[in-house]
Amino acid sequence: MKTALKSQTQFDIEEATIAGVRAAIRNDTLTVRQLVQEYLDRIAAYDRHGPRINSIIRLNPEALADADRIDAVAAASSRQKIGPLCGVPVLVKDNIETKGLATTAGSPLLKDNVPQDDAFIVKKLREAGAIILAKTNLHELASGGETVSTLIGQTLNPYDLSRTPGGSSGGTAAGIAANLGLLGIGSDGVNSIRSPASANNLVGLRPTMGLISRTGLIPCGLTHDTIGPITRTVTDTAILLDVIAGYDREDPSTHEASAHIPPTYTSFLDRDGMKGARIGILTHFFGHKPQHQPVNSVMQKALAILEQQGAALVAIDDPINPDELLTSTLVHHYEMAQDLDAYLAKLPPNIMVRSLADIAASGLVHPSVAGTLSTAMELGAKKIIYRERLQRQAALRHRLLDLMARHRIDALAFPHQRRLVVPIGETQSERNGVLASATGFPSIAVPAGFSAPGPDAPLGVPVGIEFLGRPFSEAVLIRLAYAAEQAIQARMAPHTTPALG
């Protein structure tokens, strides 16, 4: 059964929110089919044509049929008893399994990897009424920061088409920024949710390790890998987190999650959340050269606004060095062969690659990740160095908790990137997301503002501020991020993807 479209929509899809969609469906001014079709029209206009953002690997061919089913259920219940994500179109990074849709991680070697079941969080999304609209591009095998894959190539930043969208979840972020979907799901190994959130003027949450299941994720290294939201607003992140957080018996890391989840994260959306908060500013996470000035200028203005909102800004001069952490604490390259091989071994026999070595030897690997794969195969056998790095991670966790206790800090703050997201063709550099990935602590990036406008970026290039908290302090981070978002008011839609006529 197909639900009839309204003769004239009264719903503005640009910058749409969950609350707006729910209200429009409940008030009978919008059908889910109409909403899905509008997003499909925008994808056709802006991802496939026009600026060719190139964020979508594949559309879900059942999206409109799913919309019709939800419309029928909503109509039968007089549109009152609808799920928290009723009819909400979601973009899912293509390293997260979705039933009936190939899950490729951007590699043609996995183009026939069609899961028979959804990843745990995809099941939770569907149960909440969401529609999986499309699978999004990523840096191949989630092993880089520029979002380029052998399968479909380079994703563009909709704010500046000459720049990357960050990565590795850049396809999800570019799509959400350009209003090609309402909610996004990414994965984060080192920077991979917060980097594209920062670069695309979005909210990106890396949760505490163990808050969200990784079952159904193509892994890079399970000590660091996690899944999380990428949205346009903190409110939508809180609603989405209510749906996807929780215990999964197939993922042992989630065994402690239930004890730390509040009835709803939305209860922490407080405009006055900065009043009385103590925010530690990590001074060593700022650059001090001319190329850092665009980011520093945006951050200075944003921090001044937070102070005006009642936050106490505490300069933390502890010499934690993000570049040093990258070279001394991360273990994803030591785990990649083991964890990826275990995933590949479970795939159906029609998938010809069964190991990282098979992928590397295929000759069908994007040049930007070939070196990473070679390194991972070499490091997988170096168990002593691996254990030493795990010990450094434990020491870093203790160091951060002690620092936050001594200074009575609610959260630490810093720019996610010390310099603007790089132009296409360059390698991403000077990102600060390693602090959360090396510790497993939660971290959220929110829009801080834009650099000065330029010929390719009439709005400027987005800059994100990152807040990092203690384990399972997502409620605190949401309170602070929401207060910052409401005070700074930095979110703007990109100029390259305006409303369709």
Automatic annotation (TrEMBL):
InterPro entries: Amidase_dom, AS_sf. Pfam families: Amidase (PF01425). Gene3D superfamilies: Amidase signature (AS) domain. Signal peptide: none annotated. Residues 35-477 form the Amidase domain. PANTHER family: AMIDASE, GLUTAMYL-TRNA(GLN) AMIDOTRANSFERASE SUBUNIT A. This is Amidase family protein. It comes from Undibacterium arcticum. The lineage of its organism: Bacteria, Pseudomonadati, Pseudomonadota, Betaproteobacteria, Burkholderiales.
